[in-house]
Amino acid sequence: MSCLETRLWFYFLATSYIDTGIEAIHFGQVGSRMTMIRAMLAGWTCLAASVLAPTNTPAGICGNDDCGQTSAWYVFSALGFYPVCPGDDNYLIGTPLFDRTTLTTGQGKTFVINALNNGPLKPYINGATLNGESFNRTYLNHDELLHGGELNFHMTSAPNYKWAIEPDSRPRSALAKLDEELAK
Fold first, then answer.
1. pTM for the model
2. What are the distances in angstroms from CA 93 to CA 58, 135, 162?
3. How far apart are CA 82 and CA 92, in angstroms?
4. Is CB count within 10 Å lower at the N or C end of the chain?
């Protein structure tokens, strides 16, 4: 591990679990957070499909799942994307659990997510298409989801280090957007 990875690992490991004597308090899913951070640092964004179901153990307390946030995290992760930052309209791409999922939007349209060639030994995205066009980004915008359509992930057993590596393939931070607006 690099020095930065080691520091990040120590930070998340050291602050991930506090026993108050009444119940355990968790500050996020350490394993999934570290997997995501290591993937970003390594330059690839396809994450292994190791989603954790809430259980009556320190990994998840039955009946107390952070007011639904753990459940929401699990559902989004199983779909293959997740809203990383509250208030941001982008979803970070992950690894779909299901071969095919159909979402119905509030506008009566559907958004279909297909994980082609999916399986437990093929957790990486080799490429993707959105509505038949090449999709070379690590994020999906909420408006794209609402307009309906079809997102196809082409799954493989090895990371594709050339998929979605350009700077424009990553979501811009709110600060970067603000800087651009202020520069006008």
1. 0.62
2. 27, 11, 15
3. 5
4. C
Asked whether residue 85 is assigned to any structural domain, the reply reads yes
Does 18 fall in a domain? yes
User: How buried is residue 161: exposed, middle or buried, by Cβ count under 10 Å (0-12/13-18/19+)?
Assistant: exposed
Q: Which domain holds residue 61?
A: 3-173
Structure tokens at 26: 């968790």
SS3 of 84, please? Answer: coil
Tell me how many domains the chain contains: 1
CATH code: domain of residue 147: 3.30.2080.10
Question: What is the tens place of the pLDDT at every residue in 141-165?
Answer: 999 999 999 999 999 999 999 999 9
The dihedral through the CA atoms of 66, 44, 114, 128 has a sign that is: positive
Identify which of 5, 181, 171, 183 has the alpha carbon closest to the alpha carbon of residue 88: 171
What does the DSSP 8-state code read for residue 46?
-
On whether residue 180 sits in a domain, the answer given is no
Mapping DSSP to helix (H, G, I), strand (E, B) and coil, where does residue 4 land? Answer: helix
Q: Is 57 helix (H, G, I), strand (E, B) or coil?
A: strand
Domain contains 183? no
